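Reopening this one. Same input as before:
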Amino acid sequence: MEMLTEMEKAVLDRLADNPFAAQQDVAVSLGIPRPTLAMHITQLTRKGYLLGRAYVLSKKDRLVCIGGSTIDTVLLSDQPISFKTSNPVTTIHNFGGVARNVAENAARLGVDVSLISIVGDDESGRSLIAHLKGLGIDTSGVSVRPDLRTATYTSVVTGSEAVVAFSDMEIFDRLPSEFLDRFVQHFVSATWVFADCNLPASVLSALLQRKKGARFQLALDAVSTTKAVRLPETLENVDALFLREEEARSYIHENLDPPKLAQELARRGAKNVAVISRDFSVAVATPQEQINIPAPKANIIDPGGANDALVSTALAKLLMGADFISAVRHGTIGAAVTSEVVARIHPSLSPQLLDEAEERLKSEALSSGLL
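Same output, byte for byte:
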């Protein structure tokens, strides 16, 4: 899509706030004559940013995910890793990336999803896009760069723990701060926007600026300890913040326990905070209360996709109108079932699977005296 002028951006922001606003009212709010506004609306329609007489067609309960799309390789070892020598492993390839994983999980849970990301013009990128389209995910926001390769993530897992991981994410580091300007139509149709810190700090900052005055709610995920520092210093425009406890410590530079980490992040402006521990228990802080949600007992085989499953399951519940604590509590069920399979995404994930898993985990907890 063609780039927008500054005035076109301003017009689009006004129409995003009220798609049915009268042209005269919009013109007055921008301090321009009505014929000038009409000219800008014509240009925005020609460029594909506006749809129909109401200017913007918004779908109900829509999730837009922005950030990483990768090809993941998991190296599974039955034994502790020995250095400076060969280690026998089982190699598993998956589609990955936090935003991409959240988008796929949410789509499997029945959510209307769009993905904004970037891949290389290579077989990996083409297969990733085809897979998403097969799930019914809107991929019109996935850019293809012929000069860069699709990102990769490789992790080594022993037992139930990832002991080391390697990422090749140059394609995301090259994103310009104006990257999101081409996808305005996705923002104005979103109920929730989810972004991960695979995005450069400048792009995250631009997203937070776009959030001001917008109707969508914004959720962020820190991704890793090294990328958590890309989060803004203040978090006032963040409606939901998801991060692991080590990522929270990296961001705030304090060695606090999870409940205090959640409290500090809320103090910095995030409306709702979920600090996720290694066992997938969650310290939650909301404007109303603070609570620790225990992790359901699970037979953990591969924890690699559990965090993303927790986030996407919680977002799916939020889109259904659940409060944050209830949504995160349901998210721990998504994390549990995903950790029980060797895959970034549970191949049978569905609302029915989560309901059945919740009943099974409750029954197991009761029989073991945990409830």
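So the earlier flakiness isn't reproducible anymore. For the record, Residues 55 and 184 are 12 Å apart (CA to CA).
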